[in-house]
Structure formats: structure tokens, C-alpha cells
Design brief:
single chain, alpha/beta, 5-stranded mixed sheet, 64% helix, 8% strand
Length: 506
């Protein structure tokens, strides 16, 4: 037999070995499923919410839906922190004082490791959408750096939007999918099998993982959408009456009338969609398509809720009903909230940044005076409703333009390279886009309903975007100087403590 023939036979043997393993998968998977049938292997949950940012009930409900491969004790610790904090050491210090059971009591370990069976999640909140996430593991649960990065990254999107509870759920869900994962569920196996066998049979043999976090997200979106739709249903008669009282010849009223034209049809469609979503079984709710449908349902219901609030407020304003002053306060609320937030903008840095910050504060004082004067003139009927709304629109547009300019100064002050500047610009755009998608929060703001989605920059969203940009840059800088890809290990002052785990910035 020549050398080429031997190589060919070896290759065939390797392929056969892989697919023999794949063929055995259904039985292995069945055993695993059977073991999970009685329990999701969640032994206990402890939540120490020192930062007061977590929803305890939501966390426990979500964890009850997540399946772990081995019996696992989950400990969650949130804290208010500073940028300079070493949360690995902070977690160890907290464990020693408040939860010694997190640390191994095995005499052979000398207290140098986390206790077996434990999965510890530390969330350090250091600002809006800014902080660190740490995960720590008993020696029987430890994972590699690459897997730890994937666990941390699962929560980044939620953390960057200050959705702390959802972020912790995502981290726990990813951790459960990675820790003690059986060999037949390893992605590397399927890649190898696909390469050697041309992909034949891999799909049929793959074990489908039901993602509990998808069901949680589906339920949250459906619940939120249903709340909005219920309010729309209860107010439907008032909304229709208000729409009929909107005056002709008014620019803003005309915009609302156009929106009301398809309001009833959207309402009926949303009601039908709600019924279909409610009828979905557990398997259907676990799909990404179902999650997208639930999200779209929530967004449409939220838009309907905001639209009927705006129509009711507009009718009160234009007809000078007994509630017109409440309706006017709903119009001024967004700009006044933004002006209140101006003082929270980060301003430490070079002289140019401090000058830009001072200019923003000066605009804030000017804008407040305009809002107050406009309300006084509207009450005295020296101006009409359209004129008053135009002034508010002008103020919000001017604030948006000033925030855009402020962003340029901040980015130049903080970023050191064009790559870092682009990272920060991307995060600011993401935050602005996320805010625009959720701006239909109700309350009766006419301008929020009739204006283009990207017309106004909200100060709170700006703060989230800037903090996320700083975190992204810092993470890149750490990654560039660390072979672990941004994962921080070690416990300063921890003596010989060698527990598995690490932290990263988001």
C-alpha cells in the first residue's frame, strides 16, 4: 500500500470515529435530558443587592428557568463601585466578611479556592451603563478565559443600557450553558464533524438547546406590550372623542389626526397579535423569531399608548378644558428633565471641555426662562398652542445640536487615536438609537409622537452613550496590554488565594 492510500485510510478512520460519536448523541442527550427532568440543577440562590439595582423576584424567576449541567449554587453580589476598583479583591473581601461559605472549607485547599459547586456573579455599578462584571467559580465549575469572556459579553448590551437585572440574567444563562458542558454539546465537536464529514448529518444529530433567557425576554416584552394595550383599550372611547375635537388648520393637530387615521386598525392588529403570542407554547416562545414578534408587539402597543395620550393632551390644550394645564406640563416635561440632567454631564478635563460645559449650563438657564415665559403667555392667551409647541421644539432641537458639539469636544479630550474616537462615536450612536426606539413612553408629549425618531437627543441617553464609549475604549486598552483579552485575574492582598474567575469592564 502506498503512502497516499495510507493517508486516505487514516482520514476515513478519523471521519468514521467522529460520526460514530455523533451517532451516539441521541442516547447521550436523552440521558442528559432525563437527568434534568426532575430539576434544573439549581441548588440555591443568594442575592446581595448592595447597589440596590436588581429586581430580586425577576432574578429568582429567571434562574428557576435556567438549566445547569451539574448541581450549582448561584450567588449574586451587586455593589456601588469606582472606576479604579479591583472587583476580584472586593468580591473576595466581601465573601470573607459576609459569606464565608463561598470559600472552600476543605482542609486540603487551605481556603485558597472558591467552594465547589459555586457560581458567583459580581456586578460593580460605577455610573449609568458603566461598571465591571466579575464571575467566580468553584474548582469543579471553572472555565477557560475564552469561555469567561463569552459569559461576560452576554451581559454587556444590557449593562450598557443600565438594564442591570437583565444583564445578570444573561450572564447566568451563558454561564449555565458553558460550565461543565458535556463533550457532545461542545461547538468544537460540531465544527470538526462538519469539516471531516462535509456537514452531512450534523444538523440532524445536533442537540437543540432551549434558551431560557429567550423565554424570559419574550415574557417581559409580551407583559409590557399587554400593559400598554390594556391602557389603550380602557381609553379608547376618550381617544376617539378627543380626536374629533382637534381643530382644523393647526399643524400639530393635523399631524395627530393623520396618526389617528390608522390608529384603530393598528389597535385591532395588535390585539390579534397579542392573542397569538399568548397562545404560544414553551417551545415556540424559545425561538428568536418569537422574541422578535413579542418585541415588535410591545413597540407597537407602546406607540399606540403614547399616541392616545398625546391626542388626549392635545384636545385638552386646544379646547382649553379643565385639564389643559396638566396637558401643558406633559409637553414641557421632556425638555425640563433634560435641563435637570445637564449638571450630570461629565465635564472633567482640559479647558476646552470645561468651556463647552459652561456654555451648556448657560443654555440651560436660557431655556428654562423660555419655557416659563411660554407657559405664562399661553395661560394669558397671548400665544396659541401651535406657537407654544414650536418654541418647545426649537429648544429641544437647539439642545440636541449643543449635545452633538459637546460630544465632539469630549471625544477629542478623551480618545487618543482615531480608532478610539470611532469607538466612542459608535457607542453614542447606539445609545441615541436605543433611546429613539423607546421614546414613545407615553405621558402626553405631542412632540415625541409627531416628530422624526432621531430629531431629539435626550441627555440621559447621551450620558449612557458616553459612559459606554469610555468603557469600550478602556476595554480595548486593557486588551491590548493583556494576553487574556481584557479579563482581569488575581486578588491583590488576597495572600495565596487562587480561586478561579476574573472580571472585565463593560
Amino acid at each position: 500500500m502506498n503512502r497516499l492510500s495510507k493517508i486516505a485510510r487514516l482520514g476515513s478512520a478519523a471521519t468514521l470515529m467522529v460520526f460514530s460519536s455523533v451517532a451516539a448523541l441521541p442516547s447521550a442527550a436523552a440521558q442528559d435530558t432525563s437527568a434534568q427532568a426532575a430539576s434544573n440543577n439549581l441548588v440555591s440562590v443568594s442575592i446581595d443587592d448592595e447597589a440596590l439595582v436588581l429586581n430580586d423576584e425577576k432574578l429568582r424567576d429567571a434562574l428557576a428557568e435556567i438549566s445547569f449541567y451539574e448541581p450549582t449554587k448561584v450567588a449574586i453580589y451587586s455593589r456601588e463601585g469606582e472606576y479604579s476598583d479591583d472587583i476580584n479583591t472586593e468580591t473576595l473581601t466581601y465573601a470573607k466578611s459576609a459569606h464565608p461559605e463561598w470559600i472552600s472549607a476543605d482542609p486540603e485547599d487551605y481556603g485558597d479556592y472558591w467552594a465547589d459547586g459555586y457560581f458567583i456573579i459580581t456586578l460593580s455599578v460605577e455610573g449609568p451603563g458603566d461598571g465591571q462584571i466579575g464571575t467566580y467559580f468553584g474548582e469543579d465549575r471553572k472555565v477557560g478565559d475564552g469561555q469567561m469572556r463569552s459569559i461576560h459579553e452576554a451581559g454587556y448590551e444590557d449593562f450598557n443600557q443600565a438594564r442591570w437585572t437583565d444583564g445578570v440574567i444573561a450572564v447566568a444563562d451563558k454561564g449555565a450553558a458553558v460550565m461543565n458542558r458535556p463533550w457532545y454539546k461542545s461547538p468544537a465537536l460540531w465544527i470538526t464533524a462538519g469539516v471531516l464529514g462535509g456537514g452531512a448529518g450534523v444538523t440532524a444529530g445536533a442537540v437543540l438547546l432551549v434558551r431560557a433567557h429567550r423565554r424570559q425576554s419574550f415574557a417581559a416584552e409580551l407583559s409590557a406590550g399587554s400593559e400598554h394595550l390594556t391602557r389603550v383599550t380602557m381609553d379608547l372611547e376618550v381617544t376617539e372623542l378627543s380626536a374629533r375635537t382637534l381643530p382644523t388648520g393647526s399643524r400639530h393637530a393635523a399631524d395627530l389626526e393623520r396618526r389617528f387615521a390608522d390608529f384603530t386598525e393598528k389597535y385591532r392588529t395588535s390585539f390579534d397579535e397579542q392573542q397569538e403570542l399568548l397562545a404560544m407554547d414553551k417551545k415556540a416562545r424559545s425561538s428568536s423569531a418569537a422574541g422578535q414578534r413579542a418585541k415588535k408587539f410591545r413597540e407597537t402597543a407602546q406607540e399606540l399608548d403614547a399616541t392616545d395620550d398625546a391626542i388626549t393632551a392635545a384636545a385638552a390644550l386646544y379646547t382649553r378644558s379643565s385639564t389643559w394645564e396638566d396637558a401643558w406640563r406633559a409637553q414641557t416635561a421632556p425638555i425640563l428633565e433634560d435641563l435637570d440632567e445637564l449638571g450630570n454631564l461629565p465635564s472633567e478635563g482640559e479647558e476646552q471641555l470645561q468651556s463647552a460645559f459652561a456654555a451648556l449650563q448657560s443654555f440651560g438657564a436660557e431655556a428654562r426662562a423660555v419655557v416659563e415665559r411660554t407657559g405664562t403667555e399661553l395661560k394669558a392667551e397671548r400665544i396659541d398652542v401651535d406657537t407654544a409647541l414650536d418654541r418647545l421644539r426649537g429648544l429641544r432641537e437647539r439642545l440636541t445640536a449643543r449635545l452633538d458639539e459637546y460630544a465632539k469636544v469630549q471625544i477629542e479630550s478623551y480618545a487618543e487615536t482615531e480608532s478610539e474616537r470611532e469607538q466612542m462615536r459608535d457607542k453614542l450612536r447606539e445609545a441615541r438609537s436605543a433611546n429613539n426606539r423607546t421614546r414613545m413612553r407615553g405621558g402626553g408629549s405631542i412632540l415625541d409622537v409627531i416628530s422624526p425618531a432621531d430629531l431629539f437627543w435626550r441627555v440621559q441617553a447621551y450620558n449612557v452613550g458616553y459612559s459606554s464609549g469610555v468603557s469600550a475604549v478602556e476595554s480595548s486598552r486593557q486588551s491590548a496590554s493583556s494576553s487574556s483579552g481584557g479579563i482581569s485575574h488575581g486578588y491583590s492582598g488576597g495572600g495565596s488565594f487562587s480561586g478561579s474567575g476574573g472580571s472585565s469592564r463593560f
